[in-house]
Amino acid sequence: MLKAIGYFWELLKGGWITTRHFMTNMFHHTLRLFHIKTKRPGAVTYQYPEVKKPLAARHRSLHRLMTREDGKPRCVACMLCATVCPSECIVIEAAEDADPEIQKVPKSFTIDLNRCCFCGFCVEACPEDAIRMDTGVIDLARRSHDDLIFGLDKLLK
Amino acid sequence: MIKLFIDGAAVEVPEGTTVFKAAEQAGIALPHFCFHPAFAPEGTCRLCLVQIEGSPKLELSCSTVIREGMKVVTQSPAVGEARRGVLEFLLAEHPLDCPICDKAGECKLQDYSRDYGLTESAFREFKEKRDKKVAIGEKLLLDRERCIQCTRCVRFLAEVTKTHELGVFERGVRTEIGILDGVPVQNGYSGNLVDLCPVGAITDTDFRFKTRPWFLSRAESVCPHCGRGCNIYVDYHPGLPRVPGSAKVFRIRPRTNEAVNGPWICDVGRYGYVRAQNAGRSDRPFWNKDGAKTELGWDTAMAILGDKLRALVDAGRADRVAVAATSWLTNEELFLVKKIFRDDFGSGRIVLCDPRPGEGDDFLRRPDRTPNARGARELGFDPAPPALEALARGTEVLILFGPHIAEHFRPAELRAALDGIAVKVLVTPHLTGLEGLMDGVLASATPAEKDGSFTNFEGRVQPFAAAARPCPDVRSELEILAALAGSLGLRPDYYGRLTTAAAVRRELAKEIPFFGARA
Amino acid sequence: MTDIWVVLIKIVLALVWFFVLTLYLTWAERKESAVIQDRVGANRARILGMTVIGLFQPIADAIKMFFKEDFVPAFSRKALHTIAPFVSFFFVAITISAVPFGDDIRIGGKAISLQVFDANVGLLFVLAMLSLAIYGILISGWASNNRFALLGGMRGAAQLISYEVALGLSLVGLIMVFPSLRMSELVRAQGALLFGFLPKWGVFLQPLGFLVFFFAALAETKRVPFDMPEGESEIIGFFTEYGGLKWGLFMFTDFMEILIISTLLTSLYFGGWQVPWLGANGFSFPWGGAWHLAPWLVTVFQVAAFNVKVFFFCWLQILIRWTYPRFRYDQVMDLGWKLLVPLSLLNIVGTAVLLSL
């Protein structure tokens, strides 16, 4: 019996917590409904498609390929990213460049985002800082698998 | 025998041995660039320095001959310091373009820099600019920035091929490797320079930028391009999931076998073979029906051929089968051809149809163009080109291995002779145009894709194992023959066992003394 | 003839009140849970670009459910499967007839009670109808041809019957204090004052009875923390094999039960439409003041008070649903039989002793 009363006390405490949340949040919600600025919003959530949560500085989002000053890709097709990639989603074909200082350029650079696990190893492996994952693009859902295979054209944008 | 101590351990080696080789014998690998076992020591790279008791300075292990009771230290602070210094000097002029260097991953400079080198250079000045892309041969490109002047390439051309195309020009910091008067390196063995170069200074346009070495798997095989039977490595990409066509052979490298080819192979084997693996393949069986090409599954194709042969056997005309084998086949396959068609079918029309001999040289290349001419001879095949008349007359089923028959006869002649034969089947890894005359084509494996053995011109039986299969739908001739024997119900207790190359090789050794002596 | 029209109008008004509030109770549940959890809640349904804090959500839900497949599982008892949600719905919906919304009003010299059906056994009628709602649960579980649904239905029946006992016994004390089973009488009796200032509400006379009734009633609604019969998230419940509108009807019935429990709590323990110190002529405060009001204004006050109290209990039930975790089944049974039933018996004895003094 004593135990049951103890439980009852805890139940009341729990109820008090939710009531407190309800009351404070409702207070802010109501004031804001009448356009009165309050110190904090009633909800901590973001209204996602309209309001985007600021991404962390180190957040790994969609890849992009960096370019040199003249617009050519910085990538030299060393395939270190393809080597380190745990999902085996990067496929590179190299081509000869006319400039003997560059020599090797990617003929094709394909990331299969269906397989990509966004580990960021490719970024860390790149000796040329040619690939980065800082575009902030995280809404990557597509209607077909083929749309998620990104080639040079999409990655250089 | 002379006794000396290397790192405290006693080693006994014959007189005249160098410290380097003695250490090697003691299981101690010393770093080196310029030394190569096939050449006389040069001593330009200064990396194999060791400490020898009683000697005031460090000595070059590659050119110092041992003395009785010599005490050698290969690992000490002084030695490490000296090697670090050497590497620092080399790297002061060596570009850091490993990402685009084909040698990266198997580069000695990379390896030693990791083992001994400093991560930071004291060198703050600009590196010297040099030519990065000099064509020195048909398939060779020289990058002078990467070159460390070990002169291995120069010595190879001077000592092995004795053609002297490359030389060392200028002096001091301007020292460079070059060709004389624009005459390119062209001697049939130029590909070896790529393997010899310890760094990525000489690269191969055939392999350049195609892939990276660490993606490649390595299979030991035997070169099928002449009777020498050079030992090779087949470097192939095992393939990426969901990337069709990514599994393929990328390059051929020599596999050292002092008795056959030493550490070298010729350019024909090196470059021809990669092409042979990947281009012009017949990748699945098909049947020419009413002039139209119909691709078939293996089961259907084999069933059709089996039915034709069974009809002959049932009619008591089994000897009306003609078979033109080729010494591109392995010993085991030739043995099965002989067993099935000569012994069981009783056919007298079993011939060998090889490509015409070409030119050889006085080093590795042999005039014959097939890997197993000697094996075929030992198995009782007549190496002389067959007479078309004898082959075609009265023949009802013709089975051709390899497309080489087209080399011996004019097309019209061939067509006229083959027209009289009811069923003509070609078993070939490559399509060369002959398939138009055939009723059926069975796609077979190249030597790199199958198990077996070749007998080289000296009578050396060299077994090898399968490497990658770029065409997933091909079968080796051994598989085809074993399946045929099975479907015809020939002596199941005998042929039932002979389904792998190893099993056939055991049987071969049992039945033919030549192979028995070499098993 | 006018009597029939009056009754018809009363029925329509009561049902409209009942259904509209139930519909918006789903909205309230979503919003309240969101606010408790620092979220915003449903706010996307929009008409002509307006969202109006998500008030169109119930309409969107209804449209969605209309267009869902009306699925009947294979080898189920199709007729029973179809009838079950209607059985539940009907027996809960009919209870609203016994609820008094306000004091009698006079129109054209004629007294009209703000209650659809003032039976002299009103309280028993409500209890009986709520008990019959069990059939809907049992039938749906039985007719689904799904053993898990059947088990869910059995759990539901066991739980509801267990708590019916405590529910009924807790009310005995109340009936002893206000010796009537007529709902209007019960409410009217709570208009008196205790010690001259305290409203004579059931909760003050029967605090223990109130607690027992409250917990038993919570269990009757089959919601968290007493959601053994459904257990949406983990254990499969009796309406597993329902979808679309039929499932919607079950959910609707659930929310109707919340509302019914709230009206019962209000009517039985919190004075129903009574406002403290408000008489037929207006307020007369215990400290001597008075505030004269027109009769229609008094009625407005009463109906408003009734609604406010009902809303409060709806809010409280939603708060409880979003605060506490689910009981284990043995705990549910322990609570019912070992705590609530003895307490209600104690309450009856105690009340009897106090009354006989």
Tell me what you see in this structure.
The complex is a heterotrimer of chains A (157), B (519) and C (357). Chain A is α+β, with helices and mostly antiparallel strands and 157 residues long. Chain A has 2 domains: 1-43, no CATH class; 64-155, Alpha-Beta Plaits (2-Layer Sandwich). Chain A has 4 helices and 5 strands. In chain A, the strands form 2 sheets. Chain A has a 3-stranded antiparallel beta sheet. A two-stranded antiparallel ribbon of chain A has the order 1-4. Chain A is elongated and about 85 Å long. Chain B starts with a strand and ends with a helix. The relative contact order of chain B is 0.09. Chain B has a 7-stranded mixed beta sheet. Chain B has a 5-stranded mixed beta sheet with strand order 2-1-5-3-4, with helices on both faces. Chain C has 357 residues and is mostly helical. Chain C has 11 helices and 7 strands. A 3-stranded antiparallel beta sheet of chain C has the order 5-6-7, with no helix packed on it. In chain C, strands 1-2 form a two-stranded antiparallel ribbon. In chain C, strand 3 (193-194) and strand 4 (198-199) form a beta hairpin. In chain C, helix 3 packs antiparallel against helix 4 and helix 5 runs parallel beside helix 11. The mean pLDDT of chain C is 91. The chains are: A alpha+beta (157), B alpha+beta (519), C mainly alpha (357). The interface between A and C is medium-sized, with 18 and 15 residues.
CATH architecture name of the largest domain in chain B? 3-Layer(aba) Sandwich
Number of strands of chain C: 7
Helices and strands of chain C: which structural class? mainly alpha
Shape annotation of chain B:
elongated
Order of helices and strands of chain C: HHHEEHHHEEHHHEEEHH
Domains of chain B, number:
3
The percent range for helix content of chain B is 25-40%
Mean pLDDT of chain B: 89
Label this structure with key terms.
heterotrimer, B: 519 residues, Ubiquitin-like (UB roll), Alpha-Beta Plaits, Rossmann fold, 3 domains, 7-stranded mixed sheet, 22 strands, C: 357 residues, mainly alpha, 3-stranded antiparallel sheet, two-stranded antiparallel sheet, 62% helix
